[in-house]
Amino acid sequence: MKTRDKIVLAALELFNEHGERNITTNHIAAHIDISPGNLYYHFRNKQEIVREIFTLYSNELLERFTPILEQQESLVLLKRYLNSIFTLMWKYRFFYANLPEILQRDEELHQDYIVVQEKLQANLVSIMADFVSLGLLQLSPSEMKSQVRTLHLIATSWLGYQSAMSPKTLITEEIIHQGMLQMIAVVKPRATETGLEQLQLLEEGVKAMHA
């Protein structure tokens, strides 16, 4: 693995474990046993590393939430998207937990974030339309946008909300699963009979992970 990639992965690991604000470039260099000078050869400062992680996150986010062209069984599709939500929130949990603070420090990153999230929301509206066509949900086009906005709000704010509700919140897989259950609860009232059955199966699966 190239040194640049090692730096990014080490930073992601340390940011997730200790919080981005508590980690310096010296911590990152020491973690992979390189000199600070070697790190600065690849990145001028920590903010450049954060931007690199954001690029990885953005690419994965848009790839995972692209409407599926081929026909798949509805429960498989629901599981795929739910698993993607969990994977991204866990893999990049430092970013979700401190989103406003990270974006406020970097105007360029903030603009990039807005562009990516607008693309994501357009994709999510298309995905929601797919679920309507599959007979899982009952939503008008205008209701789809509102539903997507609510789900997007929960996904992006859930970890920050949990941190705000407790002075020493440790981000765990269980907390992310609680966020997934919250999203399922929001969708349930708009589900058809078939959709409700599928959502209940997903809900039971998530709950079983921590039974």
Automatic annotation (TrEMBL):
Residues 1-61 form the HTH tetR-type domain. InterPro entries: Homeodomain-like_sf, HTH-type_Tx_Regulator, HTH_TetR, TetR. GO terms for molecular function: DNA binding. Residues 24-43 bind DNA. It comes from the Bacteria. PROSITE patterns: HTH_TETR_2. It holds the Pfam family TetR_N. Keywords: DNA-binding. The keyword DNA-binding applies. PANTHER family: ACREF/ENVCD OPERON REPRESSOR-RELATED, TRANSCRIPTIONAL REGULATORY PROTEIN. This is TetR family transcriptional regulator. It comes from Vibrio panuliri. The lineage of its organism: Bacteria, Pseudomonadati, Pseudomonadota, Gammaproteobacteria, Vibrionales.
